[in-house]
Amino acid sequence: MFGVFDGHGGREVALYTEDHLENAIKSSEHYKKGDYGEALRQSFLEIDRQLEGKEGREALAKMKRSNPPNKAPLFKLLGEITSPNTGEEGDDAKLMLDSIGCTANVIFFDNMKRLYIANAGDSRCVLARAGKAVPLSFDHKPDNAEEKRRIEAAGSTIQEGRVDGNLNLSRSLGDLKYKINKDL
C-alpha cells in the first residue's frame, strides 16, 4: 500500500492519517471479506469519525502544540501578529482543529494482481503505460458540476472556485467544519 496525504490548514490531519489509515483499512469488515475497494472508501470515512471524536481532536491538538508550523522569516522578524496560544487545555478553539485537512490518494495492491485506488481531493494518481499517462483518479474540485451540486445541497456555496470562498477542493479528510450535517 502507498499513500500521499497533502495537508492544508496545517499538517496534523495528514500526519494523523499516515499513522492511522492502515489500521482503519485492515480493521474494516470489508477488508476481511476481500472487498478492498469498499474497505478503502470506508477507511476515509473512519478517519473523519476518529478526528471528530475526543481522542482524535486531542491527538491533533497535541501535534499542533508540539510542532507548530514554521513562521515565514518576515513574521519571525516582526514577532507575533496575533496573540500567541497559551498552550492551556481550553485553547483548542484557537487551534482551529476543524479547519485542518488533507487530500488522500492511496494505492492498494491485492497480491500484486489488482490495484485499488482511493482518492479524496486533488492529489492525482497516474499510471505510465507505453509512454502514456493513464489517469487512475480524478480531482475533486468545487467547479466540477457533480461536486458543485453536492456542495450546494449541503448548504455551502462556491465562490471564486472555492467552497465557501475558502477550500479549493471539494473532498478531503478532516476539514470537519464542512461536515456538520450528518444526513449527507
What is the topology?
Layout: E1 2-8, H1 12-26, H2 29-32, H3 36-52, H4 54-66, H5 73-78, H6 92-95, E2 101-110, E3 114-120, E4 126-129, E5 132-135, H7 145-153, E6 158-159, E7 162-163, E8 173-174
Antiparallel strand pairs: 1-2, 2-3, 2-8, 4-5, 6-7
Helix pairs in contact: 1-3, 3-4
Summarize the structure.
This protein is an alpha+beta fold and about 180 residues long. It contains 7 helices and 8 strands.
- Helix content range of the residues, please? 25-40%
Largest sheet: 4 strands, antiparallel
Instruction: Report the span from N to C terminus.
Output: 29 Å
Which oligomeric form is depicted? single chain
Ranges where pLDDT stays below 50 over 5 or more residues in a row are 81-89
Could you tell me the number of beta strands? Answer: 8
Using the CA coordinates, give the radius of gyration.
Answer: 18 Å
Query: So how many helices?
Result: 7
- Shape, principal axes of CA atoms: globular
Kindly report the average pLDDT value.
88
Derived from helix and strand composition plus strand pairing, the structural class reads: alpha+beta
Order of helices and strands: EHHHHHHEEEEHEEE
Beta content = 15-25%
What does this protein look like?
This protein is α+β, with helices and mostly antiparallel strands and 184 residues long. The chain is built from 7 helices and 8 strands, in the order βααααααββββαβββ. Strands 1, 2, 3 and 8 form a 4-stranded antiparallel beta sheet that branches. Strands 4-5 form a two-stranded antiparallel sheet. A two-stranded antiparallel sheet has the order 6-7. β4 (126-129) and β5 form a beta hairpin.
